[in-house]
Write a structure and sequence with these properties.
Blueprint: E1 25-26, E2 34-35, E3 38-44, H1 63-71, E4 73-75, E5 78-79, H2 85-94, H3 98-101, H4 122-127, E6 132-137, E7 156-159, H5 186-189, E8 204-206, E9 209-212, H6 220-237, E10 242-247, H7 259-263, H8 269-292, E11 296-302, H9 323-326, H10 339-342, E12 346-349, E13 358-360, E14 364-365, H11 369-376, H12 393-398, E15 406-410, E16 421-426, E17 429-432
Parallel strand pairs: 3-10, 3-11, 4-13, 5-14, 6-7, 6-10
Antiparallel strand pairs: 1-2, 4-12, 7-8, 8-9, 11-12, 15-16, 16-17
Length: 445
């Protein structure tokens, strides 16, 4: 883009999605008389393993998630498929590592492409067997034309096309470095802050249309809550199985918690944002519970570990400090293949199906969500490609502790070529072929 003016992103096509109903039934875990399950996947952004109270006793800001863990299954050894945004999200929706699905680094504001069109997303597959599919939140897999969520299997979309720091707003929130509001005088103001996105105001999409630009970040949580509630209730009234993918802005900078949450914690802005995220998840869970909880699985996880360069605005890796790395002045979190970059808090909740108050130590990954969900929906994996995820239904329902024997971690920007497999987990062992580095917390702000 040339110049410094604040310009909207023009939609490239009209929304042509339509709803249809297929009354297929699926056998449940123990019976052949249950409907296809509703599926809610909630993906937090830049969240640390230690940000979940059930994982780390020093955290007290997640009462709703802690309750979900007590009523469901908490995974102690669950991993993102990459330690940065776009590759991790591509792997969640395809069940394939970036070297297979073609997404090995983040898409930019000016990217014209996205997740390759020959990749089948979880939404496309479920839509093909009668599901209503909806997405709320951050997409970050290509926002133009055929790469837009509405053209990748989602009947409905409401959210931001990429990270919340990739466009200026009038309410910029908390970040390091601080980024100013959208410039009033683009000719003189927009080019002063080289670490800030200031040429394009951050848009909020409703399907293919931009409905707000710049988006009000402090009101985004309320917007997502209203849309999620409406989708769950609408799908239930229509007696149609649904897949709802909620990709939160939390806990990515800039942090923009509502004033109410800032005023109810003494622990700072990050804690206030964490509590706001937890409140939103509690609302989604409660809406599901009062609508069709016996037939709805909720899966909460994260896209990667915390962004340690953001100092007090980043989360906790818990015990996974990466001492070897940090003693050399680096970080063991986001972008690295150390545990703090990949191991993410994860919970699966399905009352009456998934046993309550269970901690699983099985080695699992976000790659496993697609094959597991398709198994629950009685849908076979497409046969024309290789999948890196596994069906984890035995872990969910039979308390099996058998997960992956090996799990590969790709480079997500710390060192070497993007997407190269630099680290491998083999049961309880982990081998680093290239350690990589990420800048540690800055000492001055």
């Amino acid at each position: 883009m040339e110049g410094c003016s604040v310009s909207p992103i023009l939609p490239a096509a009209l929304f042509t999605g339509f709803l249809y109903y297929v009354a297929n039934l699926r056998p449940g875990v123990d019976t052949n008389h249950l409907q296809k399950p509703n599926v809610i996947v909630i993906l937090a952004d830049d969240i640390g393993w230690g940000d979940l109270g059930q994982n780390w006793p020093r955290t007290s800001e997640t009462p709703n998630l802690d309750l979900m863990a007590q009523q469901g299954m908490r995974f102690a050894d669950f991993h993102a498929a990459a330690s940065t945004c776009s590759p991790s999200r591509a792997s969640l929706l395809t069940g394939r590592l970036g070297l297979r699905n073609g997404v090995t680094r983040n898409f930019a504001v000016g990217s014209v492409g996205g997740l390759p069109l020959n990749e089948s997303t979880l939404a496309e597959i479920l839509k093909g067997v009668g599901y209503y599919t909806a997405m709320i939140g951050k997409w970050h897999l290509g926002h133009h034309g055929l790469y837009h969520p509405n053209n990748r299997g989602f009947d409905y979309y409401s959210g931001i096309p990429y990270s919340n720091d990739m466009g200026c707003t009038d309410t910029p929130g908390y970040d390091i470095p601080f980024c100013p509001p959208c410039p009033k005088d683009p000719e003189t103001d927009c080019c002063k802050h080289k670490d800030c996105y200031s040429t394009v105001a951050l848009p909020l999409f409703e399907n293919m249309s931009i409905v707000e630009q710049p988006v009000n970040l402090s009101a985004l949580t309320e917007h997502y809550a209203e849309r999620a509630t409406r989708i769950i209730q609408h799908a239930s009234k229509n007696r149609k199985p649904f897949f709802l993918y909620v990709a939160l802005a939390h806990m990515h900078v800039p942090l923009s918690p509502a004033v109410h949450f800032v005023n109810t914690t003494r622990q700072g802005v990050y804690s206030a944002s964490l509590r706001e995220m937890d409140s939103l998840i509690g609302l989604i869970k409660n809406t599901s519970d009062t609508t069709d909880k016996e037939n709805t699985i909720i899966w909460f996880t994260g896209d990667n570990g915390p962004w340690s360069q953001k100092c007090e605005f980043s989360g906790s890796v818990g015990p996974f400090l990466g001492s070897w790395q940090t003693h050399k002045g680096g970080s063991s979190a986001k972008q690295t293949t150390w545990e703090g970059g990949h191991r993410v808090p994860t919970i699966a909740y399905w009352p009456g199906k998934i046993p309550a108050n269970i901690t699983s130590t099985a080695l699992l990954s976000v790659l496993d969500i697609l094959p597991t969900v398709l198994s629950l929906a009685r849908v076979g994996l497409p046969l024309d490609r290789h999948y890196d995820g596994m069906d984890a239904t035995e872990v969910l329902f039979s308390r099996s502790q058998t997960g992956h024997k090996t799990l590969f971690h790709p480079n997500s920007g710390a060192a070497g070529r993007f997407g190269d497999l630099q680290t491998v987990r083999l049961e309880q062992y982990k081998a680093y072929y290239l350690t990589g580095n990420n800048t540690a917390t800055r000492s001055t702000f």
